[in-house]
Hints:
Elements: H1 10-22
Amino acid sequence: MESRKTEIRPRERDAIIQSLRAGVTPRTGLHHIQVG
């Protein structure tokens, strides 16, 4: 499996964290989330 390092913009990161804390799916940055 290939490991890639991608940069997450601070604005996108904050939106993802806030959405996950609220228990909802983030509108932006969904491609940064890994489930497993």
